[in-house]
Write a structure and sequence with these properties.
The complex is a heterotrimer of chains A (255), B (284) and C (343).
Chain A (H helix, E strand, L loop, with lengths): L1 H26 L16 H8 L1 H34 L5 H13 L2 H14 L6 H25 L3 H9 L4 H30 L2 H6 L7 H10 L4 H27 L2
Helix pairs in contact in A: 1-11, 2-11, 3-6, 3-8, 4-6, 6-8, 7-8
Chain B lengths: L1 H32 L3 E3 L3 E3 L5 H6 L2 H34 L4 H10 L6 H12 L4 H8 L13 H25 L3 H9 L4 H30 L1 H8 L6 H10 L4 H34 L1
Antiparallel strand pairs in B: 1-2
Chain C lengths: L1 H18 L2 E8 L5 H11 L1 E8 L2 H10 L7 E2 L3 H9 L3 E2 L29 E13 L3 H4 L16 E3 L3 H11 L9 H11 L6 E4 L4 H6 L5 E5 H10 L3 E4 L5 E8 L1 E2 L5 H11 L2 H11 L6 H5 L3 H4 L8 H6 E3 L7 H13 L2
Parallel strand pairs in C: 1-2, 1-3, 6-7, 6-8, 10-12
Antiparallel strand pairs in C: 4-11, 5-8, 5-9, 5-10
Classes of the chains: A mainly alpha (255), B mainly alpha (284), C alpha/beta (343).
């Protein structure tokens, strides 16, 4: 009996998560341009979308930066979490506090203060500044998630490894990393989500050569949500879902 | 042994350097800016007065802060109650289902959240899907006015922030050793007691980090409130954005941001102090 | 051998310099310029157009100011920001000798207070704020002025723009003041007048106000004329009215930031947009009014004579352009905060 309750509960949550998406996909075929009333099915918006090179390019840029920043953030965040958990060093408490401060700052404050920093360093705005900004945004999320997982772990395992002669790097690679891997992965997912959705920080820290999707969409929505956007999001879901399932398959192939 | 020193030093130095540049410097700039005054020409006139903080202490500003905190707190609670059972079920699922389920949780959030929020309006408005179903089934006679209500805002925020609660809870629950639970049951504890006395404390780090990852960003998310709530509330996020963009009073915006951070900091410190006392007590 | 190598390298580099396509970086509101216009421009002139977007004048202003007006070649500010940015030296004066099609523009929109002599700006699209009502609702159908919106029958059925100046403008106009009123006492008066109206507001929305109207969530809305035009196209019950007390006119203008790099291409682009056929195309795709008089002539009859898109002279008399408020913006913001909290 409990099994069915559990399944029902999980099913309801998934329904809640996917219903707006389904709505979006359905509306991407809606012939009505401006209102939400159903006016017949059409593929027009997909066709228009493929012709809108600016939008497609912004989407490609977004995916690229999300993947790169998620990966870098996961690495950096994991290192920071480990350093905080395992070693004592000066400014340890300050860094721990800074992580929370970073998470609490409103996006616009982060965006503007980073732009001031980049201007002071005379950096040209574009891919690299955007990358640094996104990593700054995501690292606290990773660090805190990994750190909380580390908190629950048994120090004895690490001590045993050290007693057996393992260096810090070996301990990291063979003891700590496997233990926290689910948290690192969770951190990667969260970073990807944050990056692909970020509007305000991206607005201030990117340059004319590297436009990203959320900016386009955010301002598109202001002039009336265009159905092409629905079509684009539908395609993006398909692409990312396919990519993820594919990578799952590939990982399994390993002996 | 040499590699030992190098790795450790590299990580520590790298951490400090990166944090110093990207976390410390910008925040210090913000902090310093909060003492200045607005300048029409250069955004900020540097100064050393507390007048911005004094301005923030009046009733209307405090009300704004309070309503933002209440809203974010409510959303955190909703997320926690919804996500905990879900994460627990997920953590006990067998492979390969577990990986698929995890991935399925995350995929919706790789679409733009603004578009999803607008999709929610299609669901909630008077001629939307939910009302059509309810009217069609005869459950209600008049369409429910769900849009532009506080409930819609909470729903929208919870929807956007749910994975940030599910994922940390999942990582905590996944490493929960079932033997503790079994031992507790063997000793005669009821399921409820087992839950409160064994499971919750063991997963507390996950609960805390999940709550933080939802509560803190939630305070700044004003666009969900604008879209689903009809922009009728002035939340802290709106207020700070207005200061930076419309009124162009950057020092006031900076002061508001610093105040928010300080407030959160105080709450966190209080939490840590109380939890360490609890831990110390339980080890006695 | 060495000489050959250097020769080849220098020819290669020289060819790169020649082959390097000319570029134009345009910073515009999203989807505010049809793709076809950009493509045709590139085909004709060989200049590649790279578009970046923003969602508000304020954000664009902050960004341009912080990067010292460099990086973007064309921006599209509204009237109040043209006056502000020109005053702060962020805009480059336009070289009218390179804008042969300038004469196509409607003189009514030129030489206004926000940019005397059009030194810095060329109008791109313009519009006004109107009241749109659902004629099916009797209280809404009777609305002819801002004052009518205060009627108790409209309680909970109103949509107002989520825009400080838009809402305060309503109060100021009711009292017969200018939209650009800087006197704090008068602003406070307007504020007091607006407070009771807040109870009637169901939604504040500047992004997509026609949705609420089309979905029957509200019966009366204050919004831009382009939105009203589209809404009435989707639902013939939706009518519009130009408030008797007066209303705001907005113009989005093409400007060149002070330190722009591709100045020649920028002028080329502006001149291209001033062509009658291009202006007509833009106007039809975007749904807003074109400032191009010659272009207007080639528009279809029902658009040209549609009063919501092109208000008649009597209406235009009551229209007023928004200019920069300067430090007075603080009094507006304070009032706006109070209005939002007055529920």
């Amino acid at each position: 009996m409990m099994r069915w309750v559990r399944r029902l509960y999980v099913g309801l949550i998934y329904l809640f998560l996917y219903l707006p998406l389904a709505v979006m996909v359905v509306y991407s075929f809606n012939a009505s341009r401006f209102s939400m009333a159903w006016k017949g099915a059409t593929l027009d918006w997909y066709v228009k979308l493929l012709g809108n090179t600016g939008l497609m390019q912004a989407a490609a840029h977004s995916l690229l930066i999300a993947m790169v920043s998620a990966t870098i953030s996961s690495l950096l965040g994991t290192f920071i979490a480990m350093a905080l958990h395992r070693w004592r060093f000066p400014s340890r408490k300050v860094i721990h506090t800074s992580l929370f401060v970073m998470m609490m700052s409103p996006d616009i404050v982060i965006g503007i203060s980073l732009l001031v920093l980049f201007m002071a360093m005379s950096l040209p705005l574009g891919f690299w500044t955007l990358l640094m900004a996104h990593v700054t945004l995501c690292v606290p999320f990773v660090a805190i998630t990994v750190h909380s997982r580390l908190l629950g772990f048994d120090r004895h395992v690490v001590e045993a490894a050290r007693d057996l002669g393992a260096g810090e790097y070996e301990v990291f690679r063979h003891v700590v990393l496997p233990m926290v891997f689910p948290a690192v992965l969770a951190g990667w997912f969260m970073s990807f989500t944050l990056s692909i959705d970020d509007v305000i920080i991206s607005f201030f820290t990117t340059g004319p050569t590297f436009e990203v999707l959320p900016l386009r969409i955010y301002s598109m929505v202001r002039l009336g949500l265009k159905p092409e956007v629905n079509a684009l999001c539908a395609i993006m879901i398909l692409v990312t879902a396919a990519a993820v399932f594919l990578s799952q398959r590939l990982l399994k192939e390993k002996p | 042994m040499r590699s030992d020193g190098f790795f450790k030093t590299a990580v520590i130095v790298g951490t400090i350097a990166w944090m110093a540049l990207f976390a410390f410097v910008p925040n210090v700039l913000v902090f310093l800016a909060s003492f200045g005054s607005a300048s029409p020409e250069n955004f900020i006139e540097p100064g050393f007065s507390l007048h911005n903080y004094a301005r923030l202490m009046d009733r209307s500003h405090l009300e704004i802060m309070l309503s933002s905190l209440k809203l974010s707190g409510l959303v955190t609670l909703v997320c926690l109650l919804t996500a905990y059972p879900f994460a627990a079920i997920l953590a006990r699922a067998r492979q390969p289902w577990r990986s698929y389920m995890l991935v399925l949780v995350v995929i919706p959030f790789w679409t733009n959240s603004l578009v999803r929020t607008y999709a929610m309006t299609a669901m909630l408005n008077t001629s939307g899907i939910i009302n059509s179903v309810l009217l069609g089934l005869g459950i209600v006679k008049e369409p429910l006015a769900m849009m532009y209500t506080p409930g819609a805002v909470v729903l929208g925020l919870a929807y956007t922030l749910l994975p940030f609660m599910i994922l940390p809870l999942y990582t905590a629950l996944e490493r929960l050793d079932r033997r503790y639970v079994e031992a507790s049951r063997d000793l005669g504890a009821t399921p409820i007691k087992t839950f409160w006395r064994v499971v919750v404390p063991l997963t507390m780090p996950g609960i805390v980090s999940g709550c933080m990852l939802v509560f803190l960003p939630g305070i700044g998310m004003f666009y969900v409130s604008d879209v689903l709530g009809g922009a009728k509330a002035m939340l802290l996020g709106n207020f700070i954005r207005d200061q930076f963009l419309t009124t162009r009073d950057w020092p006031l915006g900076a002061a508001a941001s610093v105040t928010l951070t300080a407030l959160m900091g105080v709450m966190l410190v209080l939490y840590w102090k109380s939890s360490s006392r609890l831990n110390a007590g339980s080890q006695a | 051998m060495k000489r050959l190598f250097f020769f080849v390298v220098s020819v290669f580099l020289a060819s790169q310099a020649w082959a390097a396509p000319k570029e134009l970086y345009v910073y515009n509101w999203s989807e505010y310029m049809p793709e076809s216009v950009l493509e045709d421009f590139t085909k004709e002139t060989g200049v590649k157009v790279i578009m970046s977007t923003y969602d508000s004048n304020e954000a664009m202003y902050a960004k341009i100011k912080m990067v010292n007006a460099r990086g973007y070649d064309i921006i599209v500010p509204s009237t109040d920001f043209v006056s502000r940015m020109s005053r702060e030296g962020l805009l480059r004066p336009l070289d009218k000798t390179r804008l042969k099609n300038f004469a196509n523009l409607d003189p009514y929109l030129l030489n206004q207070a926000f940019d005397p002599g059009n030194t810095f700006s060329v109008p791109y699209l313009w519009g006004s704020t109107v009241i749109a009502v659902n004629a099916k609702d009797p209280a809404a159908a009777a609305v002819t002025s801002f004052a009518d919106l205060w009627k108790p029958e409209l309680k909970g059925k109103l949509l107002l723009p989520n825009d400080m100046r838009g809402v305060l403008g309503m109060g100021l106009k009711r009292l017969g003041y200018s939209l650009n009123e800087a006197d704090p006492a008068k602003v406070a008066e307007a504020c007091a007048l607006l407070k009771p109206l807040m109870q009637s507001v169901r939604v504040f929305d500047s992004d997509s106000p026609k949705q609420a109207l089309l979905n029957n969530e509200v019966q009366a809305a204050v919004l831009w004329n382009g939105e009203a035009y589209i809404a009435s196209g989707e639902n013939p019950d939706i009518k519009f009215v130009y408030p008797t007390e007066g209303f705001s006119l907005w113009v989005d203008n093409l400007c060149i930031p002070k330190n722009a790099v591709n100045v020649d291409s920028a002028h080329l682009f502006i001149d291209y947009l001033l062509r009658p056929e291009v202006a007509a195309l833009i106007c039809q795709e975007m749904g807003y009014s074109s400032p191009n008089l010659k272009g207007k002539e080639s528009l279809p009859e029902e658009v040209r004579t549609n009063a919501v898109v092109y208000p008649g002279d009597a209406e235009m008399e009551r229209g007023e352009f928004e200019t920069d408020l300067g430090p007075a913006v603080k009094t507006y913001e304070k009032c706006w905060m109070q209005l939002k909290m007055a529920r």
